[in-house]
């Protein structure tokens, strides 16, 4: 196991306690209701989970990225859907504001965001573009001291829940990466419309939305960075985002493996606990090995981030390995429980549905392989 500082262990234990006492008992009900209780979000804000790496002077906790990853692992073990809201809020939402926002924007938006006053959304993906952010079609044009934005976005986490959204649109007349610009808007602004909440395989409590911008007016004071700087801003946050998704994968796999081990210790077959049968025991041993390998890859990427080293490749490797290992681990947990693993009486079937998306969002596994290969070339 990696050596952690006292501060990192404290964050880990706080997150673990909250996840086990508050999140895990209500995870199934949350999925059924397709919503996260406001009281849960408020508690998370009070505990600092929505401002993990934001400096204290900006309203955050000022934790390092290792602490953030450790906390996210534990939150994901409690409820994968809640961890997705936490992940997107911290990075890319907070991360972009922390790096690129003006002092006035930070005071108005980042400070309350870091304290959990509202949830943030990141509106980049479009139906025809997918992983190719340079192909987006949402348009922005100047109108006096404002910008008027028209377009559509898909698969936006917290698109309905969020109080503020970071969005990207192309300046009128531009093509390719040139002209893509980053904006910030309250979601109650006229012209910001949630047109669909996706009915998903898993993570039902985290809303994933299709958005429409219909003559959405954004003041120039809420443009982030310069015109045409949006593509660079969008990509800058994905490194941290991928560390977050990898951490989520580890957390969900951890919860499933713990459930499988507990079941295998209690359930007897042919006069012995299941865990004493080599076929079951070896399956669990392999799952534990994959889990700890994934955990170390996540923490390694987070440590590189903390020390200011470029970690695009390491973050991509962590996300690729952790997300794919997690699906295998949770599948093995279901197999260990047998018919009960396929039943909603046990949490592993929900975790299996929740964890599958980790190979898709923040860049699919294929995109991660492209990034890794690019780092090798």
TrEMBL record:
Belongs to the acyl-CoA dehydrogenase family. The lineage of its organism: Bacteria, Pseudomonadati, Pseudomonadota, Alphaproteobacteria, Rhodobacterales. GO terms for molecular function: acyl-CoA dehydrogenase activity; flavin adenine dinucleotide binding. PANTHER family: ACYL-COA DEHYDROGENASE, ISOVALERYL-COA DEHYDROGENASE, MITOCHONDRIAL-RELATED. Its cofactor is FAD. Coiled coil: none annotated. Keywords: FAD, Flavoprotein, Oxidoreductase. It holds the Pfam family Acyl-CoA_dh_M. Signal peptide: none annotated. Residues 228-376 form the Acyl-CoA dehydrogenase/oxidase C-terminal domain. InterPro entries: Acyl-CoA_DH_CS, Acyl-CoA_Oxase/DH_mid-dom, Acyl-CoA_Oxase/DH_mid-dom_sf, AcylCo_DH-like_C, AcylCo_DH/oxidase_C, AcylCoA_DH/ox_N, AcylCoA_DH/ox_N_sf, AcylCoA_DH/oxidase_NM_dom_sf. The keyword Flavoprotein applies. PROSITE patterns: ACYL_COA_DH_1 (PS00072), ACYL_COA_DH_2 (PS00073). This is 3-sulfinopropanoyl-CoA desulfinase.
């Amino acid at each position: 196991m990696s050596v952690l500082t006292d501060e990192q262990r404290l964050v880990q234990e706080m997150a673990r306690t909250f996840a086990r006492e508050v999140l895990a008992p209500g995870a199934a009900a949350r999925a059924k209701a397709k919503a996260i209780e406001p009281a849960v979000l408020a508690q998370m804000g009070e505990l600092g989970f929505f401002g993990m790496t934001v400096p204290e002077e900006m309203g955050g906790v000022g934790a390092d990225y290792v602490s953030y990853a450790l906390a996210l692992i534990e939150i994901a073990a409690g409820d994968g859907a809640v961890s997705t809201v936490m992940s997107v809020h911290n990075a890319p939402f907070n991360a972009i504001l922390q790096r690129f926002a003006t002092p006035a924007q930070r005071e108005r938006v980042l400070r309350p965001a870091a304290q959990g006053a509202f949830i943030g959304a990141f509106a980049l993906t479009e139906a025809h573009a997918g992983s190719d952010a340079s192909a987006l079609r949402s348009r922005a044009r100047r109108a006096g001291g404002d910008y008027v934005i028209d377009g559509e976005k898909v698969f936006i986490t917290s698109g309905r829940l969020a109080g503020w959204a970071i969005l990207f649109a192309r300046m009128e007349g531009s093509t390719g990466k040139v002209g893509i610009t980053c904006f910030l808007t309250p979601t109650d602004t006229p012209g910001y419309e949630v047109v669909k909440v996706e009915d998903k395989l898993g993570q039902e409590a985290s809303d994933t939305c299709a958005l429409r911008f219909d003559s959405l007016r954004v003041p120039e004071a809420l443009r982030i960075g310069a015109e045409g700087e949006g593509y660079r801003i969008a990509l800058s946050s994905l490194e941290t985002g991928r560390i977050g998704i990898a951490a989520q994968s580890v957390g969900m796999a951890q919860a499933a493996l713990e459930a499988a081990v507990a079941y295998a210790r209690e359930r007897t077959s042919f006069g012995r606990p299941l865990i004493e049968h080599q076929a079951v025991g070896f399956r669990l041993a392999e799952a534990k090995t994959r889990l700890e390998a994934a955990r170390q890859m996540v923490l390694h990427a987070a440590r590189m981030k903390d020390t200011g080293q470029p970690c695009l490749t390491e973050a991509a490797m962590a996300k690729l390995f952790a997300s794919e290992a997690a699906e295998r681990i949770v599948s093995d947990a279901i197999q260990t429980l047998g018919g009960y693993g396929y039943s909603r009486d046990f949490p592993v079937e929900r975790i299996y549905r929740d964890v599958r998306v980790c190979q898709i969002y923040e860049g699919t596994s294929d995109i991660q392989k492209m990034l890794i290969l690019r780092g090798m070339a």
